Amino acid sequence: MTDWLGPAEWQAVALSLRVSLWATLCSLPFGIFVAYALARWSFPGKQIINGLVHLPLILPPVVTGYLLLLSFGTRGPIGSFLADWGIVFAFRWSGAALAAAIMAFPLMVRAIRLSIEAVDPKLEQAAATLGAAPAWVFLTVTLPMALPGIVAGTILAFAKAMGEFGATITFVSNIPGETRTIPSAIYAFLQVPGGEGAATRLVIVAVVLAMAALVVSEWLARRVARRVGGA
Amino acid sequence: MLSVSLGHDFGGFGLDVQFQAPPGVTVLFGRSGSGKTSIVNAVAGLLAPDRGRIALGDWVLLDTAQAIRLRPHKRRLGYIFQEGRLFPHLSVRQNLAYGAWFAPRSAPRVDQGRIVEMLGIGPLLDRRPGALSGGEKQRVAIGRALLSAPKLILADEPLAALDEARKAEILPYLERLRDEVNIPILYVSHSASEVARLASSVVAIAAGRVVAQGPAEQVLGDPAILPAGAREAGALITARVVRHHDDGLSELEANGIALFLPQLAHTPGTQLRLRIAAHDVILSRNRPEGLSALNILPGLVQDIRAGTGPGAIVAIDTAAGRVLARVTRRSATALGLAPGVGVHAIVKSVSVAPADVGGTAGN
Predict the structure, then answer these.
(1) Distance from CA of A123 to the nearest CA of B (A)
(2) N or C terminus: fewer CB in 10 A for chain B?
(3) Å from B54 to nearest chain A CA?
(4) Per-residue pLDDT tens for B12-58?
C-alpha cells in the first residue's frame, strides 16, 4: 500500500488533508456566525458583507491569491502586523489553509445560511416564551435544527479546500512539504518529463477523496435530518 | 390580576385596548383579524407596541412611559400557540423539560408527574412531535407551557387547527387547567362554543377595540355586542342536573324552569352551563300547544337588534336567564315584538350540542 504512492506523493496527500482540515475547522465558527447574521439580522451594509463573502466564488482564484499576498504577505498591512505576534502565513502551510478557507467560505456560508433560514422563527419565539435567553435559543433550537445544512456546508467546504489551487499557488507558492498540496503536486509533476505516473496516482487519490467526502456528507445529512426531522 | 393597556398602529389598522383579566379564563373574543393575537403577542413580548402598560399584579412587564419592556424570556409566561410549536428535534419528554429547565430556581416547583397525568401524555414521552396527532401535539404544548412554572398562561386559539373530534378531546383538559391551576389564563378565540365552555370572563374585541368586557353570561347575552356576528350568537344559562329519565333524557332545572336534554353523563346536582344558540330558538306570542319541542321558556322581550340583512336578534329575559333568538325582521314585525312584550322562547332540545355543555367557570 505504502509503496503504491511515492514519498513525495504521500507528503502531498497528508499536507492536503492537514490544510483542508484546519481550513474547515477554523472557518466553521465564522461561517456559522456570518450565515446567522445574513439569515436573521438586518443591518446597514448587509449587502456589502454578503458581496464580500461571495467574492472568492466569482473572482479568478489568482486574483484572490494575489490579494491575500498583498494583505497577508510579510510586508502587507495585516501580514506585518501578525508577524509581530509571531503569526506568519506567507509561504507556510498555514497560508495554504488560509487561502483554502477563504476560497471555501462562500460555499460554507451559503449552505448554512439556507438551513438557518429554513428554521421557523416561530420555534425560536416559542423557546423565548419558555424562558430561553437569545444565546440559549440559538444553541438549543436554531443550531440543532440547522445541523443538516451545517454538516453539508462543512463537508462541501472541506472538498473545496482539498481542490484549491489557484489562490494557494499564488499566495504561498508550491513548496514541497510546506505548501505543495495535491493539486499543486499534480501541476508540478506534469511540468517534469516522466511525472505522468505520479500525477495519475494523485488524480486517483483526489477522485477517491472527493467521492468519499460526497458519500459521507450524504450519509451524515440523511442521519442528522432524520434525527432533527422528528418521526 | 393582569391589566393590559395597549396602543399600536399597524398602518391602516390600529389597536387600542384596555382590559383586566382576573384569575380564571379570560377569553379575548372576536372575529379573525380583530387584533386578538396581536394583544396576546404584546403581552408575551413578541410584539413591541407603540404605547401601553402591561402588569401582572404589581409586576410590570411593559410600560412605554417608563421605558420598561421585559424581553420575552423574562416574562415567565406559558404561551400555548395555535400550531403547538413543539421542537421537532426533541422528544416529547425533552420538550416538556425545556421550559422547566429555564424556569428560575425561585419559581414554584411544578409537579411534572401530575401534569403528565392530567394531560394523559405519559405514553407519548419518548416519541418525537412528528409522530404525534394534532390533538396529542396540543396536549404536549399545554404541558410544556405549564411546566415552565408560568405566572400567566396565554393561549392563542389552541383548538383552531383541530377538527371537532380533536377539539372535544382537548377541551376537558383545558377545563381541568382552568379549575386546577390558579393563575390567569388569557385565551384567544373566535368560537362562541369555546367561550361558553371555558370563559370566566369575556373581553369582546372588534376592529382593535374592546367593545365589552365582563362575565361570560353578560357579554354573550347582550344583543348589542355579538362579537362573532349574528350567526354565532347565543346566550348562556346556568342549570342544575335534577335526574336522568329512563327514556334517555336528562332533566335540568334553571331557576325553576325545567329543561330536558339528551342524556348527560353528569351526576344529579351538578351545575352546568348551557349555551343556547340564537338560531335554535323559535319565538311564539302564545304558549304553544301540540308542539314537539320540550323546552319552552316564557319571558319578556328586552331588546331587538336588527342587522343589515333580513334578520334580527331578539333578547328575551326569562326566569332561567337571558336568551337570544334569531328571527327575521318580518316575523318580529308580524308578532308585534317590542321591549316588554311577553313571548315564549321555544328551544329545540337537540340544539344544545354536547360540546356546548360544560361546567360553570370559576365558581
Answers:
(1) 6
(2) C
(3) 16
(4) 888 999 999 888 899 999 888 888 999 999 999 999 999 999 999 89
Whether residue A122 and residue B81 make contact (CB cut-off 8 A), yes or no, is yes
The answer, yes or no, to whether residue A165 has pLDDT greater than 90, is: yes
- Chain A positions in Cβ-Cβ contact with residue B61 (cut-off 8 Å): none
**Domain B2-220, CATH:** 3.40.50.300
Residue to mutate among A116, A130, A151, with most B CBs inside 10 A, is A130
Quote the minimal CA–CA distance from B79 to chain A in Å: 7
Which residues make up the CATH 2.40.50.100 domain(s) of chain B?
234-359
Query: Which positions in chain A have a beta carbon within 8 angstroms of at least one beta carbon in chain B?
Result: 122-123, 125-134, 136-137, 140-141, 144-145, 227-231
Within a domain: residue A47? yes
Q: A155 lies in which domain range?
A: 7-228
Q: Give the model confidence (pLDDT) of B173-183 as tens digits.
A: 888 778 777 78
Asked whether the CA dihedral B96, B97, B101, B103 is positive or negative, the reply is positive
**For position A69, which CATH number holds?**
1.10.3720.10
ipTM over 0.85: no
What is the domain count for chain A? Answer: 1
Determine, for residues B89 and A132 on separate chains, whether the beta-carbon distance falls below 8 Å: no
> Residue A128: its chain B contacts at CB < 8 A?
45-46, 71-73
Task: Tell me if A1 is assigned to some domain.
Answer: no
Report the share of chain A in percent with pLDDT over 70: 97
Q: Are A130 and B75 in contact (CB < 8 Å)?
A: no
Q: Does A83 map to a domain?
A: yes
CATH topology of domain B234-359: OB fold (Dihydrolipoamide Acetyltransferase, E2P) (2.40.50)
In a domain, A68, yes or no: yes
Q: Is there a contact between B156 and B80 (Cβ–Cβ < 8 Å)?
A: yes
